[in-house]
């Protein structure tokens, strides 16, 4: 039994010695050499990652891994680019739609402005027309007052010099007594003419 245990101990010591030999003779010097090389390359301005990538592409297993990684990165970039283009196209369509809506709203506003201007012009025209009619009525009132204050003889002489339309308008605006006095001062032919015209005007007013 002691011999077996001694053999096991010797085997363990040999394995431990081999491990120590590998660490101190192979692994540690290799790591130190790699570290020193990386430091030197970095100080020299060499991009260590790019260099490692270039050398790695020459190694069969690693080169395939790098190529696969490149393809995956390129695919991701392509997918992102396609997604961004789709988003941009969607935003562009939305902008065009909003621009069209804005243009339609502007047309509606312009149409309403034109309608308002038309109504204002129409109102202004009616107002001017009303003012003109009021001025005309006021002028006629002033003329009627003037003829009412005038003697029938003088009024008859003036009226016969006017157009038939103006003469009938004035005579119809006077009170009946004053109009009769003026017609009485006219010669029979003019009196008959104006009496007939006054009668026709009265009939027309009744029809209206």
TrEMBL record:
The protein depicted here goes by the name Flagellar motility protein MotE (MotC chaperone)
Which chain positions lie within coiled-coil regions? 81-136
Please give the InterPro entries that the UniProt record associates with this protein.
Answer: Mg_transptr_MgtE_intracell_dom, MgtE_N_sf
Transmembrane segments annotated in the record for this chain: 20-49
Pinpoint the Magnesium transporter MgtE intracellular domain residues.
Answer: 146-199
Q: Could you list this entry's UniProt keywords, alphabetically sorted.
A: Cell projection, Cilium, Coiled coil, Flagellum, Membrane, Transmembrane, Transmembrane helix
Q: Keyword Transferase: yes or no?
A: no
Presence of keyword Iron-sulfur: no
